[in-house]
Predict the 3D structure of the following.
Amino acid sequence: MPPREGIYGLLAEFNTPSELVHATEMAHREGYRRMECYTPYPVEEAAEALRFHKTRVPLMCLLGGLAGLTTGFLLETWINVWGYPLNLRAMPLFSWPAFVIPEYEMTILFAGLSTAFGMIAQNGLPQLYHPLFNAPNFASGATSDKFFLCLESHDPRFDRAQTRQFLEQFSPVSVVEVDH
Amino acid sequence: MEMAHEHHGGNLQRPEVARYQGVNTLPAVLTAPDAVGVWRVRAAIVAVVFALISLVFLFVPLGREHLLRAYLMGYMTCFNFCGGALAFLMVQYVSGGKWGDILRRPLEAMTRTIWALVVMLLPILFLMKHLYQWAAFPNKAATLQAFKQGLMTQEQQLTANSKHTMLNPTAAVVQAAIVLGFMALVITLLNRWSVQRDQDSDAGTLASYDRWRIRFENLSGPSILVYVVMMTAFVIVFVKSLDVTWYSSVYGLQFLVAQGYAVLALGMLTLILLSRYEPIKTMFRVTELHDLGKLTFAFVMLNIYLTFAEFLIIWSGNVPDEIPWYLHRIHGGWWMICTLDVVCHWLIPFCILLSRDFKRSKHKMIWLCVFMLFARLVDMFWLIEPNFKDAASNLHIRGNVGILAYVTVPVAVVAVWMVIYLTELMKRPLINVNDPHTEELLEPEHAH
């Protein structure tokens, strides 16, 4: 758990994603690990610079899809062969081509739901409070046109003066201390 | 610079890395690397070797028939490359996008093979009565005679009569001339303008960008529609009509999607191999490879969607007019090819392309592209061969060694086409310089 006293971290504001990615890459090389990028739209290279670990969301999507496929297949097979066997156009009861569309729909449904809920669960949502909103420039810029790098104070390398000096060499728009 | 280091040395750590590195610069030489010439020689060797092996089939039972059918398969594969490239070229002119800019010169080179395709169609036109029932029996009297002699079923006789307006030797030649003529016209204009665009005296200005963009859009937009109608007619005449009794309303679209599938595989393969050398080494970023991979994934999905939807509708209808087409392609050993088609053409590329890391790996995508081109051949074999009486519901090799022509002839034909494609590829710089996207390709990957 992050300490509650003192500051949450130092927040550097940049005008372009390139500067943000560069600063993040350099911070990683300096040994900083407890850090996060905030951008108005996904910047994949920022995630790479953060060495953002692979998430388990794709796996959840795949497992959800497979579960949906199996469910659809078993449901259709049970209905047509055992549950409510009907003679349709003298076709065999186990007519697999007709099962494909429900199977497909179930695959999409299960994969979609497991991705959405899996993503929310792994995000740590719902989160009702985040210290970064204490920084006025963050609240106004992070969702429109600014790119932020926050080096968090619970990183072992974090030092209020040195870290500020480190961030300032990348000529950010500003470096502000964020309170808890 | 040394002076500056002395001044700042104490305060700043590593000033040389702290400075943000700007955009890449456009390589000085934009022409194709010498390696393309080497590939061309290899393609020529493959073409000669496989053509020589194919000659054997002149002397085996049913060999000549299969040579012609296999030639048709090879020809349609090349037609798909050229037509698909034209379609993509037009689509990227109307949609814009960096994927289209990087792919443009390979696509243009593919389209410029059109004159070779016109020449390569001649054997089919001259020998059409050995392939198509409607050409062997071109009028009502002839079909009646054929029915009496047992060469045609009554259904084939009656359907051939009713489809006579579209399916007869003269109409086939006229349709081929119109379709290939239209394609040649659009291809010539697009290729000529593309060179003129680079030589524009205002190159690099907004006015020049806009003028050319609008010009390309105005030609491409309507031509996409006309091309789709025309290629539908072309594939109906030269492939679907091998079985004169069958009806399908999605046949042209299926071929169009197959063209996209083949052209994306070949286009990515070309770019990845070229990216070992300048200028593509600098220009081809992982971002565009990823984009092309995603587009390929869409085509893989669209292809199975159309193919399976048609099968499902015909299977549900279970009408005697339509169902034999599938029965000929499922029974008598064809189940194996049918399954292979689904597995190679859809299942394997689909599962592989789900992975983001795979789509972003140049190394791995090479193999997938090659595999997808192989899958196209399997699919074309499954479409063409069961149309013939000796092969329908009866896939066999005993006493039918000629069927092996399907292995050698298409490889030879496609290799000949590759020689022409690579020759065309060498004729122009590999990058279109007077296009705003080119500058964007030089930006680092994260600058969206």
In short: Chain A has a mean pLDDT of 88. The radius of gyration of chain A is 25 Å. The beta strands of chain A are 7-14, 35-38, 147-152, 174-179.
